[in-house]
Structures are given as C-alpha cells and as structure tokens.
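Shift notes (night). Ran NAD(P)-dependent dehydrogenase (Short-subunit alcohol dehydrogenase family) while the centrifuge was going.
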Amino acid sequence: MITGADSGIGRAVALAFAREGADVLFTHLAEEEDEASKTSQLVEDAGRRAIAVSCDIRAEGNCRSLIEKAVGEFGRIDILVNNAAYQMSQPDGIEAISTEQFDRVMHTNLYGMFWLSKFALPHIPEGGSIINSTSVQAYKPSPHLLDYAMTKGAIVTFTQGLAQMVIDRGIRVNAVAPGPVWTPLIPATLPDTVEFGKQSPLGRPAQPVEMAPAYVFLASPQASFITAEIVNATGGTPLP
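Came back to this:
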C-alpha cells in the first residue's frame, strides 16, 4: 500500500514493487484520476493487480476506511509506504505561511502517516515493513520550505521511535530521505525551478525512478537487519 502514487516517487515505487511481484493499492487525490490511471496501467503491465483509491488522508476516517479496504482486498498489508506529502514555497518568510497552509502541510505529511501506521499495524504480519518518505529538508531545511521541512524532521523521529515500538512484532520501520527530485510537485509549488537540484554535489535533481530501489531494498529480506534507519539518497549531500 502506497500513498501519493499517482505520480512522482510514489508512482515509481509502485512500479518497482509490482516488478518484484507485489499487488499494489495506492492513493491519489480526486483531481488526479487520469494520472492514477497511468500508475494503474504500469502496475498491470508488470503483471500485478492495481487498486487506485481516491483518498484525502488528512481525515482520520478516510485513513481508517483506506486500511479496511486494503485488508478487504488483500487480507493483509505486507508493506505500507507513507509517501504522500504537500509543500508550498513561501520565500517571504514565516509571516507568509497562513494557518490554512500550515494545517494542510501538517495534516498531509504527519497526521495521515500517523493514522495509517496506527490502523495498518494490526494487519501487518511478521516480516512486514513500514517505509516513510522523509527528505534532505529534515537535516538541511530551506527557509522558504519551513513548514514542510518541520514535517520531514518529525518523520525521521517518528520512524526511529515507531521502529523501536514494534520491533518485537517482527515489523521493521525505516525511511528514505531523498534530495532534490524532479516531480510534478516541484513546478507546482516552487516559483523558480531553473536552479532546482543544482545545489546537490551531483549537480542535478534526481528522477523518481532513482529513488524507488531504496524502498524495495528496505522491504526485502536482504534488509532484515535494518530498522529505525534513514536511507539518504541526496545526490552526495552528507547527512547525519
């Protein structure tokens, strides 16, 4: 199960898991039906089942219903990828961040992840995984993305704390911290994208497909000794 997989990293992760033999249930926003159909087609072309669900994870009831649907379709949830996120650049500083924007960022990036993890855990068997999407912003916050960076720092803490909480259940919790990645979110939320990604030591943004293998690895038996970890995929930017 993957949130926010109508495009970008989520879509790439959905396809990568499908190619490894996984059926995929993923979420998308109501206005992204066409893009969700493209993700479904990619998963089905890989020979696996795709279930696209229009879902606003900012509401607790929606998260509960989403888990119930996944369990109803598959009987269990082997892997939960909390990937959905929202950001909006505010170059004019904290004064420009409205309460409406702040609430949207917090509820999308944190509340949804918390509720979905909480409701999914009883249905994740031993050997299963929760994988969260954090960011280089958790460690090197850009001032114009203050609220977004706050949530990504919280995701690191949540990942490390939850991993210790569920380790006795045989469930692993990890996260991936991408650096700059070119996704549809970037031109939609940043005023100037000409220099985007050039600050990375590799000198360019990543493509979503370059992130997907990290998620597959963390869910694989080869990563059975890895939990409470953050896999940094930052294009060479050193992180703690």
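The chain has a mean pLDDT of 95. The first helix runs from residue 8 to 19.
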